[in-house]
Amino acid sequence: MNQTxxxxxxxxxxxxxxxxxxxxxxxxxxxxxxxxxxxxxxFKIPSGSMIPTLLVGDHILVNKFxxxxxxPFTRIRLFSLQKPERGEVVVFLEPTERKKxxxxxxxxxxxETIQVIDRKVHINGKPLEGExxxxxxxxxxxxxxxxxxxxxxxxxxYFMMGDNRENSSDSRVWGPVPFELMKGKAFMIYWSWNGPSxxxxxxxxxxxxx
Length: 210
Hints:
The protein is globular, with a radius of gyration of 25 Å. It contains two helices and twelve strands. With about 210 residues, the protein is an alpha+beta fold. It has helices at about 15-40, 170-175; strands spanning about 40-45, 60-65, 90-95, 100-110, 115, 120-125, 125, 150, 155-160, 175-180, 180-195, 200. A hairpin with a 4-residue loop joins strand 11 (about 180-195) and strand 12 (about 200). The protein has a single domain, classed as Ribbon (Umud Fragment, subunit A). The model is unreliable at about 1-5 (pLDDT under 50). The longest helix has 23 residues, at about 15-40.
């Protein structure tokens, strides 16, 4: 007599919709954290210290990978592809209290002697050329900002200045910035609007930062 064998098929368990959405959200959050921590981070410009290069209400992207990713919540940098160069616009942690992010331009490099004489920057005793980005709203002199130094910039530190020289708290106030506090190089304006009126500055969106 032939016996009929019954085959039991094992059916795969289907994930619940809630679990699938939860996993997708967690993966997205992890990826966003990695990108923000190591590759690119968005910042908003809250003050006019970088006028005319950057305006209040500009939203910018900053390349964090180029200076080397740092382990989150530490100053430990895994590696560095490039050190900041003169003229680059850089986001960094303000060096005194180390609580706020600032954005300024690299003016002086490690080991250089810098001095400001009647608004003119001098590097190693010679006037610095190519400062077309430096902006003064008036012809008046601002005490304490139009003349500074000379000082020698420490090893692995950088002298940072805002383009709006009359309205910028920068290295003339709190000294050179150590490389470990550098977060990244600003490279593009991805969104911009004009203050409380929220008028979009369409012509600035997509502009590269020089």
